[in-house]
């Protein structure tokens, strides 16, 4: 099992989104067909193309019922197809799009499903990126943009990544779109979007900084995505039970984490694979940030602990 998938499963086991499992299928709550079992009215395999510059957006039904696909980059296309994950284990929505003309800032071709504007929402999904870079998650009603901005990149072929999100913002859709001008190919599955009682989220963070030491021992500069390696160590005299999360606060404007396991009220976090840590035991995680003009790791604050269900 890959480290990414193992860490994702650790996050999945902790973050209790309240999804009701029935016959192995998640109750999506605010959305329909989050397991992509139903094909849309246009059949399986749907392509939308946008006109040449100056272009203009074009949208329509996707290959999955209740989901729409859209293209906003001139001279670009987007294709969707419902595909089996593994024998007998469900389906995913596969999305392929090219770059087209110069993309609009923070706007990509993608797929989405809308729902009535709702405050206090949880969302979770699995995503596999075969190429390019993808942004996904809840859409804020007031701005029509992402409430958080996780960027998922291609890592290892065949690696699924679990992501969960909590938002107090008023949101009205969940979407996935390419976030770089190179286009993207990716798949999503088991999308769950649900309302939770305001103002309290379904989980709270228990700070364990008194017992867990944080050591950022390595920084790698890279315009494509600088990386910081962090060692988490049990500095106490007794074993600690997880799961454990590393929360990254205070990121500068425009800087994001490219490999998050989730977002809690706008703050990204990563999950450790260790279910427990003996005295003196450690685990190392790597945090990758977006690059751009600044090839260095940004300044941020760290909390180490565990999310707990209320």
Put the structure in a nutshell.
The chain is mainly β. It has one helix and 21 strands.
Offer a few descriptive terms:
310 residues, mainly beta, Jelly Rolls, Immunoglobulin-like, 2 domains, 14-stranded mixed β-sheet, three-stranded antiparallel β-sheet, globular
Describe this structure in words.
By secondary structure, the protein is mainly beta. It folds into 2 domains: 17-195, Jelly Rolls (Sandwich), CATH 2.60.120; 204-309, Immunoglobulin-like (Sandwich), CATH 2.60.40.1510. 4% of the residues lie in helices and 48% in strands. The chain contains 1 helix and 21 strands. It has one helix spanning 3-14; strands at residues 21-22, 25-26, 46-49, 58-61, 68-71, 77-84, 91-97, 110-140, 151-153, 161-178, 184-195, 203-207, 212-220, 227-234, 240-241, 245-249, 262-264, 267-271, 276-277, 282-288, 301-309. Strands 3, 4, 5, 6, 7, 8, 9, 10, 11, 12, 16, 17, 18 and 21 form a 14-stranded mixed sheet that branches. Strands 13-14-20 form a 3-stranded antiparallel sheet, with no helix packed on it. The chain has a two-stranded antiparallel sheet with strand order 1-2. Strand 6 (77-84) and strand 7 (91-97) form a beta hairpin. The longest helix is centred in the first third of the chain and has 12 residues, at 3-14. The radius of gyration is 19 Å and the shape is globular. The protein starts with a helix and ends with a strand. Mean pLDDT is 82; it is low at 1-27.
């Amino acid at each position: 099992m890959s480290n990414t998938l193992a860490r994702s499963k650790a996050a999945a086991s902790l973050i209790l989104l309240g999804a009701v499992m029935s016959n192995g299928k998640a109750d999506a709550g605010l959305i329909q067909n989050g397991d992509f079992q139903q094909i849309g009215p246009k059949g399986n395999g749907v392509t939308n193309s946008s006109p040449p510059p100056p272009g203009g957006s074009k949208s329509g039904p996707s290959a999955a019922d209740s989901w729409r696909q859209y293209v906003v980059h001139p001279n670009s296309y987007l294709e969707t197809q419902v595909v089996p994950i593994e024998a007998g284990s469900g389906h995913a929505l596969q999305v392929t799009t090219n770059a087209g003309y110069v993309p609009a800032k923070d706007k990509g071709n993608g797929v989405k499903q809308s729902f009535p504007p709702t405050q206090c929402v949880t969302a979770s999904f699995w995503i596999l990126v075969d190429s390019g870079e993808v942004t996904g998650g809840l859409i804020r009603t007031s701005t029509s943009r992402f409430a958080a901005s996780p960027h998922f990149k291609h890592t290892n072929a065949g690696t699924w990544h679990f992501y969960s999100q909590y938002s107090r913002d008023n949101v009205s859709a969940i979407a996935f779109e390419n976030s770089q001008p190179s286009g993207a190919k990716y798949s999503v599955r088991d999308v769950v979007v649900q309302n939770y009682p305001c103002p309290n989220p379904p989980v709270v963070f228990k700070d364990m900084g008194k017992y867990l030491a944080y050591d950022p021992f390595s920084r790698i500069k890279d315009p494509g995505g600088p990386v910081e390696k962090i060692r988490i160590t049990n500095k106490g005299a007794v074993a600690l039970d997880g799961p454990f999360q590393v929360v990254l606060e205070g990121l500068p404007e425009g800087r994001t984490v490219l490999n998050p396991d989730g977002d809690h009220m706008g703050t990204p976090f990563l999950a450790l694979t260790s279910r427990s840590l003996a005295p003196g035991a450690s685990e190392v995680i790597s945090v990758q940030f977006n690059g751009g003009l600044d090839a260095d790791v940004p300044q941020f604050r760290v909390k180490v602990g565990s999310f707990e269900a209320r």
